[in-house]
Amino acid sequence: xxxxxxxxxxxxxxxxxxxxxxxxxxxxxxxxxxxxxxxxxxxxxxxxxxxxxxxxxxxxxxxxxxxxxxxxxxxxxxxxxxxxxxxxxxxxxxxxxxxxxxxxxxxxxxxxxxxxxxxxxxxxxxxxxxxxxxxxxxxxxxxxxxxxxxxxxxxxxxxxxxxxxxxxxxxxxxxxxxxxxxxxxxxxxxxxxxxxxxxxxxxxxxxxxxxxxxxxxxxxxxxxxxxxxxxxxxxxxxxxxxxxxxxxxxxxxxxxxxxxxxxxxxxxxxxxxxxxxxxxxxxxxxxxxxxxxxxxxxxxxxxxxxxxxxxxxxxxxxxxxxxxxxxxxxxxxxxxxxxxxxxxxxxxxxxxxxxxxxxxxxxxxxxxxxxxxxxxxxxxxxxxxxxxxxxxxxxxxxxxxxxxxxxxxxxxxxxxxxxxxxxxxx
Amino acid sequence: xxxxxxxxxxxxxxxxxxxxxxxxxxxxxxxxxxxxxxxxxxxxxxxxxxxxxxxxxxxxxxxxxxxxxxxxxxxxxxxxxxxxxxxxxxxxxxxxxxxxxxxxxxxxxxxxxxxxxxxxxxxxxxxxxxxxxxxxxxxxxxxxxxxxxxxxxxxxxxxxxxxxxxxxxxxxxxxxxxxxxxxxxxxxxxxxxxxxxxxxxxxxxxxxxxxxxxxxxxxxxxxxxxxxxxxxxxxxxxxxxxxxxxxxxxxxxxxxxxxxxxxxxxxxxxxxxxxxxxxxxxxxxxxxxxxxxxxxxxxxxxxxxxxxxxxxxxxxxxxxxxxxxxxxxxxxxxxxxxxxxxxxxxxxxxxxxxxxxxxxxxxxxxxxxxxxxxxxxxxxxxxxxxxxxxxxxxxxxxxxxxxxxxxxxxxxxxxxxxxxxxxxxx
Lengths: 426, 426
Hints:
2 copies of one chain form a homodimer. Chain A has helices at 2-15, 24-35, 171-179, 218-228, 243-256, 274-280, 316-334, 388-392; strands at 42-46, 59-60, 70-71, 75-78, 92-97, 106-110, 122-125, 129-133, 136-139, 149-150, 161-163, 184-188, 192-198, 202-203, 214-215, 232-239, 259-263, 285-289, 293-294, 300-304, 307-312, 343-349, 353-354, 360-370, 373-378, 395-399, 405-406, 411-416, 421-422. By secondary structure, chain A is an alpha/beta fold. Chain A has 4 domains: 18-40 and 190-334, 3-Layer(aba) Sandwich (Molybdenum Cofactor Biosythetic Enzyme, Chain A); 42-62 and 161-188, Molybdopterin biosynthesis moea protein, domain 2 (Alpha-Beta Complex); 70-150, Molybdopterin biosynthesis moeA protein, domain 3 (Beta Complex); 343-422, Beta-clip. In chain A, the strands form 8 sheets. Chain A has a 6-stranded mixed beta sheet, with no helix packed on it. At the A-B interface, helix 1, helix 3, strand 15, helix 4 and strand 22 of A face helix 1, helix 3, strand 15, helix 4 and strand 22 of B.
């Protein structure tokens, strides 16, 4: 049986024009090697406009935070030794002064955040004191030296890297940068991605398709994925199945953008013209074509005038998975990000799922939490043209090449592309 | 010991003006009951502008997808029974016709996505055929009825709810909506949140603080958190510690926005004036003040002219946690979202962490993956004024009221607020 299916598989690969299928890892290696990717230009933006931008260089603090020893509570700044032995029954008595210097047996009223005055080394909390009169304080509980004091540099030390290059800036990063006196940061320019759909069968969204036609949805999906990564997008429209037209539109995209992504016309058949168009635009052209994965096998990767061209399947689901596997890492690499910017969760598979040996399979699943446990329910329809699998799923599981499937109750690592859901929403 | 600390705790609560601390759940219940929250208005946007908006009503498909039986492969449409018994050694011979009707022992060439012609009930893949001459086909492998055919309605059935109300629209949702012929969708108007900081000690970002002053960072943080949830924000500036000024700015916020969020001036001391200002603006005013949580205990919740006012601590970290616990659920409730819009992960705690009995503690952790396992490393500095704990952490663990801490190696559920990281980045 194995020899038959291997033979059929080889025929398929030959028929589709692929001498061999390339593994995802090898495809990426070749692509990035040929591409010699340049990082994006750096631009400065105000903190108000920096949310979700990617920091281009380490930010080093020019000061200590707090800049001085600061009270962490409302109370009285004191010399700790003057409170030793204090208790509810035998309080220690101190003199309340308004000085900026705390002497022996003296106390200065202080609010949270205020500098601890000279001479004091601790703060007694208000609720551990009793004011006898205008200038006499009873301390009911001892404090240790340093107690209730936020020490200079405790939060951030001068010279410390406070936010690293490659960080996608979240509100908390903006907060700490502002606290340190910064008002603007250096971030990478937004990557520009030009998106082209190809196919005689396609009509624009909103047009009514005749029986041989379908509505073009890939530009909307791919542009949305790019926007989620903080890219600007350029719409190159729909190209008919004509090498000249495709090449001309890709060329326009190369001029206008940092990356070109196409959909359709990539499996090598009568109408599969995009790789030919890419090659026509100059060396190296297509550097990988045919990936050992499912879906998205006919994905191709090219380089034109030093810029990346990602040639995705026309199948919406295959296009999404192909973009996730090749497009997203490319964009994150251009942005030099510090993490793969992904959320994962481990979940128990609710039923068995089969896959094909020799290819990485991307199983779409719906993850939900029940009684504190995570479950991943494989979404039933598995054809790569079945777009509803992507809206019914909220994540995917990668099934390795050497496994024919996954077992029920197996713990799987799910890569999330939407929020964790609730049971019964599948 | 317990009685002493309970006594101290009660003193503290009284001193801070809180008759009692309210649990988070009870605080939310009271708040939402007094608030009688109205859902936001609905507006229609084009699919191009719908990314990350929240769908206001179920979208029901008006058609089947695919709209007809469609070939899932490149090949020949046939009657399945004409292929029964076919093999490499004894192929079945069919006549290639160009008809739109497939008769007995006939085959019609078909491309992926094309309608399956009348009379045919299956498609033989190109690679399982051999073309003998212009009109003679040899089939090398049998197909079952329905094989390689995407059946009408297989992806989406007419009348089916294709995207549910409350869905935050992702690229895949836009794709399926376009495929079904929609060009626009009804979404909720963006919530408007007005943000006010209070405190005599505050200076605007970019100004140089003198020793008793600090840079105001909470508006930047809270506005960022709101923008991440798809809100528009209104900056109400900084109010001095003056009830009239605070009340006047909150009142302006109530006019301009759906929600007012304030920071600072909430623990009941000499300068804690925001709850008083809220109460002055009319009944019911503050409905909860003092939450059994840490940090963010002095959080207060109010209702003014039917609109919510969230009174957060001036401490950046306490403000963030307070917003996460009360502000985010409020906004998601206004948007009627289908999920809590959160990512969770289970991780092993790398060391023990202590907390305070009787309050929910929010432990900041850094989650990373190593050898396929998730680990959560508690971020060391724990003061709620330590803003760097929020940039060093990428998630938090809620420690329940009845536990004094968490043990090393304990499996904890982490609520992520940034991407999963890599080891050594703590």
